[in-house]
Write a structure and sequence with these properties.
Layout (H helix, E strand, L loop, with lengths): L8 E3 L8 E4 L4 E4 L14 H23 L6 E13 L2 E14 L5 H18 L1 H6 L4 E4 L2 E2 L1
Helix pairs in contact: 1-2
């Protein structure tokens, strides 16, 4: 078993209209409640960070899976969207949908189209964030081949 710790420090002073700080090994950002949820919207927020974590994990996993499958000249542009719901008096991230647009060497596009569904599932199963939220957040993949 491999174990790795990811460390983050946060600081918050005041109530819900305040702004806090988040510091990781590389990431330094202000945090607050999103404006759309009644906060002041300064910096980032936990919801955006969750979608960002899922998106960055998935695109890295997908690139690795495509490379291991023998594809060359890999380019992926991806839009990801998280949908949160308020139900039973709680906010919850309900669904995260990734929309990767995948480009590979032109002579390999037909091969990619045939294997794409399987490769997308392998990438999702190799993504630590997908594995961590599975069962709580529905992750959907809506790919296109460019």
């Amino acid at each position: 078993m491999v174990k790795h710790d990811f460390n983050v420090t946060t600081h918050w002073s005041g109530g819900r209209e305040s702004v806090g700080d988040l510091n990781g090994d590389v990431l330094t950002e202000q945090i607050s409640i999103p404006a759309g949820l009644g906060g002041n919207g300064t910096g980032t927020n936990p919801d955006e960070l969750l979608v960002s974590a899922a998106a960055s994990c998935y695109i890295i996993s997908l690139a690795a899976v495509l490379e291991r499958a023998g594809f060359e000249s890999i380019e992926i542009e991806q839009f990801s969207s998280g949908t949160a719901l308020f139900e039973n008096s709680k906010f919850k991230m309900d669904t995260i949908t990734h929309y990767p647009i995948i480009s590979v060497k032109s002579t390999q596009k037909e091969q990619l189209a045939k294997k794409l569904d399987k490769l997308l599932k392998i990438a999702d199963n190799n993504c630590m964030i997908s594995n961590s939220i599975r069962g709580n957040v529905n992750v959907k993949i809506q790919p296109k081949i460019k």
